[in-house]
Write a structure and sequence with these properties.
ten-stranded antiparallel beta sheet, mainly beta, eight-stranded antiparallel beta sheet, 18 strands, single chain
Length: 267
């Protein structure tokens, strides 16, 4: 782990402001599918490996695989790898590194213009590459990092920890803003009822020592006013570390494995 951290080179991110929710074809992206594993215990570091999958729905929109950390001062950090990511990015084709940082009020503070952030990878990510996604505290900052194990390339940046020292576990799946510390697969679509995505495995790189919540929302209508997330399937109690557990939510399935890995997929 130390060698990875020492090799971090800060890169400049290119971001686009989320002003309207249109993809390149000017079609409205209004449905959101989310699959989440949230830790109940605090974490100083969150690090998972995934395999880069090139997949998209019939409209060309692909998923994002995200590592999330809610700090003990209320800031929420997200970093992930996405494919054909249409939410906020329009013409983001192929693989990209996506990120967001929110303040305790739920407002995006980085990128500074709001909306979603995107980084150009340091090197080319190819389908099948093994990717490390990591959040950790380093001095007075939080580092958000991606490493392609196939090429050795690292893409990373740091942001103020805002006096935080740990990422909080959650007692009730999420906090009042819907934020949490854990993993999330997110996929935006033009309509409800998407089926057929390939599963992805989040394999732990750093030890977590935590029970977990599992929850999912098959279809959130983003055009509903007021917008209120409503996870339609969840575990009623945290899942223990040595347990295998599968959660089914309409078109979605997710699984926690006793080795600490998390699997998301579609029925």
């Amino acid at each position: 782990m130390g060698n990875v951290k020492k090799a971090v080179a800060v890169v400049v991110g290119i971001y686009l402001v989320l002003s309207v929710l249109f993809i390149a074809q000017k079609q409205l992206v209004s449905w959101d599918q989310q699959q989440v594993m949230a830790f109940t215990q605090n974490q100083n570091e969150i690090a998972f490996n995934i395999t880069a999958l090139a997949q998209s729905d019939s409209n060309g929109n692909g998923p994002a695989y995200l590592v999330n950390g809610l700090s003990n001062t209320g800031y929420w950090y997200q970093i992930g790898i996405a494919y054909n990511w249409s939410w906020a990015y329009g013409n983001s084709k192929g693989f990209s590194l996506v990120y967001d940082i929110f303040n305790p009020k739920g407002q995006v503070v980085y990128p500074t213009g709001g909306g979603g952030g995107i980084l150009t990878f340091n090197g080319i990510v190819k389908p099948g590459d093994k990717i490390l996604l990591e959040l950790y505290f380093q001095g007075s900052n939080v580092t958000l990092l991606e490493k392609d194990w196939n090429t050795g390339n690292i893409t990373a940046f740091s942001y103020s920890a805002e006096n935080a020292t740990t990422f909080l576990g959650t007692g009730g799946r999420t906090d009042i803003n819907g934020t949490f510390t854990g993993l999330m697969t997110e996929w935006y679509h033009l309509g409800p009822g998407f089926k057929g995505g390939e599963p992805v495995v989040y394999a732990p790189y750093a030890k977590t020592n935590s029970t977990v919540w599992l929850f999912a929302d098959d279809n959130v209508n983003l055009m509903r006013s007021p917008f209120l997330p409503s996870f339609i399937a969840n575990t009623t109690a945290p899942v223990s570390q040595n347990q295998n557990y599968t959660l089914v939510s309409h078109n979605l399935t997710e699984q926690y494995r006793s080795d600490g890995s998390f699997v998301t997929g579609y029925r």
